[in-house]
Specification:
Blueprint (H helix, E strand, L loop, with lengths): L6 H14 L3 H13 L7 H4 L7 E3 H7 L5 H13 L3 E6 L4 E7 L6 H60 L5 H10 L16
Antiparallel strand pairs: 1-3, 2-3
Helix pairs in contact: 1-2
Family: Belongs to the CSN7/EIF3M family. CSN7 subfamily.
Keywords: Coiled coil, Cytoplasm, Nucleus, Signalosome
GO biological process, one term: COP9 signalosome assembly
Length: about 200
């Protein structure tokens, strides 16, 4: 098992052999093929070939990066150099970028465990957030039910007391109507009980 090679490494080796004797537009086409090849995830060996590490004309960069002017392009290259995305030199006289090194999208085998661990931690964090949201929804629903139940109890108690009060008082007693209207001041002045005018 240890002596077996993965198909992706065999495929990459084939591309590397082809790239050693290729240059110009044929090399560009080959690199595009490698990037689109299924199962090839490591490109470092290909990028380290001497004929791959060559100068890139400003005109190609301007076109491919859709930049408007040289100043904008040079600013981008300088920023990429300072952030260690690429290592190289600007040849302003010949309008070339000489690339010595660039960060690829390769994943080193020693980094895989760390990536898996980070992704697991992220998933655990997402699950914790979802659990917290579900608990908040349950608490909010419980609060809503309790509030609704309390409101119904209060309204039932008010109706009960109001009906008891009305049954004990003579409906034609003007003093009751006056006091009742004052207690219910949120209602507009209108006709009281039994035609008596409150106010």
């Amino acid at each position: 098992m240890a002596g077996e090679q993965k198909p992706s490494s065999n495929l990459l080796e084939q591309f590397i052999l082809l790239a050693k004797g290729t240059s110009g537009s044929a090399l560009t086409a080959l690199i595009s093929q490698v990037l689109e090849a299924p199962g090839v995830y490591v490109f470092g060996e290909l990028l380290e070939l001497a004929n791959v590490q060559e100068c890139i004309p400003y005109s190609v960069l301007l076109k491919d990066l859709e930049m408007r002017n040289l100043r904008e392009l040079e600013d981008l290259i300088i920023e990429a150099v300072y952030t260690d995305i690429i290592q190289g030199k600007l040849d302003q006289r010949n309008q070339l970028l000489e690339v010595d090194f660039c960060i690829g999208r390769d994943i080193r085998k020693k980094d895989i465990n760390n990536i898996v661990k980070t992704l697991h931690e992220w998933c655990d964090g997402c699950e914790a957030v979802l659990l917290g949201i579900e608990q908040q929804v349950l608490r909010a629903n419980q609060y809503k039910e309790n509030h609704s139940r309390t409101q119904q109890q209060v309204e039932a108690e008010v109706r009960k007391r109001t009906s008891v009060t009305f049954s004990r008082v003579s409906l034609f007693d003007p003093s009751f109507c006056d006091s009742w209207c004052r207690c219910n001041s949120h209602q507009q002045t209108g006709t009281g009980l039994a035609g008596y005018r409150c106010g």
